[in-house]
Amino acid sequence: MRQGDKYGLHRVIEPAGVMPQAAWKIDNEMVCYDNEILIDVDVLNIDSASFTQIRREAQDDPKQVKDIMERIVGERGKHHNPVTGSGGMLIGRVQEMGEKIRNRTDVQVGDEIATLVSLSLTPLAIEEIRDIDMKNAQVHVKAKAILFESGIFAKLPSDLPRRVALAVFDVCGAPAQTARLVKESNSVVILGAGGKSGMTVLRQARLAAGNGKVIAVEYGEAACERLRGLGWADEVLNLDATKPADVLAAVENALGGGLADVVINCVNVEHTEMSSILCAKDRGTVYFFSMATSFTAAALGAEGVGKDVDMVIGNGYCLGHAELALDLLRESPELRQVFEQKFAAMA
Ligand code: NAP
After folding, report:
1. Other C-beta atoms within 10 Å of 49: how many?
2. Would you write out the chain's pLDDT as a tens digit for each of its 347 residues?
3. Using CA atoms, how far apart are residues 236 and 339, in angstroms rounded to an integer?
4. Domain count of the chain?
5. What pTM, to 2 d.p., does this model score?
6. Would you say the CB of residue 247 lies under 6 angstroms from ligand 1?
7. Which amino acid residue places its CA nearest to atom 11 of ligand 1?
């Protein structure tokens, strides 16, 4: 059996010497190296920023979405959107485990798992795209994938429908980082609060901030009404997060002339950096979970308006993130219901 590198370096084709995530192309031959896990894939959860871009390029035509997805994987050996740079994740069943890792106790052949590493570094070979859920970015496939030795994963919980669990796992870094950043009595602003990550962040922020003020920003009245119905935000503002001056004025008003200790960006479109930065008070924190964030726009934008804020990149991983996110759904029947209504029908 062939020997593999812990981080999957043996799969990198070009450019040589980079990590699999940074590589333009990786080897997606579905032969298990001695330290790899081969997965029989069932569903891909495409990252929201990536899927939004693909839908736009495909003019919302599912056939063209399928063609674009096949083209990406065909060219790169992974579902790594060349425009957004982002991936997504998958669920599937363990088909084979390499010789060196066969005696691992945390996973066995036959287990159903969700990968918690990005599709942007996961070797993937798609045989057939069976069905595309255009609204929720979940794609039913016949495919195989490889998980490297360093790759993290979670077993699917028995108390939640699998597509609900997949959707939660996709964004589980966001509420977990929120738990670290938001302190009792903090004022918090969440942009894109009506989306998957946004709602989990909103719930976690409500729990962590206590009597602090939590402001939810979402675009569209229907989504705002849904958020008001949940009752977790002190105020829900219907705003376009790409319009920083409007967002700043409305948030300042909602916070009685003040600004937020913590701003969390969960939007799935570009050009929302300045709305996030302007809403944070000096020495406050801006957490960019959004994959549509531009480092340049955020760094130069903050400097340009003289804002001394700490900006946190949305690392998708932090210790215990999957369990924390699942527990949020278990703790909150309302949150669970929203996710089930959105995803469980497809399970
Ligand atoms: P989602 O469910 O699609 O939520 C995005 C939300 O933003 C939606 O409610 C959307 O409203 C709202 N929105 C869109 N345009 C807006 C605007 N101009 N102003 C205000 N709100 C707007 O996406 P998600 O799965 O939660 O993901 C959110 C972001 O996190 C994406 O950028 C995704 O790529 C990123 N992400 C990051 C990681 C990581 O590891 N850092 C992991 C997963 C996802 P509509 O539904 O009405 O459009």
Report:
1. 23
2. 799 999 999 999 999 999 999 999 999 999 999 999 999 999 999 999 999 999 999 999 999 999 999 999 999 999 999 999 999 999 999 999 999 999 888 999 999 999 999 999 999 999 999 999 999 999 999 999 999 999 999 999 999 998 899 999 999 999 999 999 999 999 999 999 999 999 999 999 999 999 999 999 999 999 999 999 999 999 999 999 999 999 999 999 999 999 999 999 999 999 999 999 999 999 999 999 999 999 999 999 999 999 999 999 999 899 999 999 999 999 999 999 999 998 866 54
3. 20
4. 2
5. 0.93
6. no
7. 219
Residue 164 domain-assigned? no
Pocket lining: 198 vs ligand 1, CB cutoff 6 Å: yes
Residue 341 domain flag: no
Q: Which domain holds residue 26?
A: 9-156
Q: For residues 233 and 244, give the distance between their C-alpha atoms in angstroms, rounded to a whole number.
A: 21
CA nearest to 204, candidates 88, 326, 313, 89? 326
Q: Is 290 in the pocket of ligand 1 (CB under 6 A)?
A: yes
Select from 83, 237, 266 the residue to mutate for testing ligand 1; criterion: most ligand atoms less than 8 Å from CB: 266
Residue 266 and residue 191 in one domain: yes
Last residue of a domain, one of 123, 156, 189: 156
In 3D, which of 225, 330, 242, 232 has the Cα closest to residue 278?
242
